[in-house]
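Supplementary notes for students who missed Thursday's class. We covered one full example, reproduced here. Read the sequence, then the structure, then the short commentary at the end.
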Amino acid sequence: MLENALKSVKEAEEKAAAAMREADAQAAAIIEEAKAKAKDMKDETGQKIRTQKEQAEEEARQMSENSLKEAEASAQKEADALRQLVEPKREEAIEAVITSLV
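Structure (token representation):
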């Protein structure tokens, strides 16, 4: 009877040890999976940040180009207006120079 009891205890210890090994293996697998998911999430977040940065830079460049085009158009309008304002007096200025030379 004592032998049966000792045998039962030994079997229970072996089962418990096997269960602990299995639990340790499962825990290690869960940890590795969590690490892999965390790395994927980090990489994905980094890519999203880079994409958003590139989009923001492109938008800023477009806005800058648009502002430059608007400023160029405005300057051209002003130059055209000045030319129209000066054109009628051009003949007078040429005659004045010729008169002063003669």
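Commentary. Helices lie at 2-101. The mean pLDDT is 92. If anything here is unclear, bring it to office hours.
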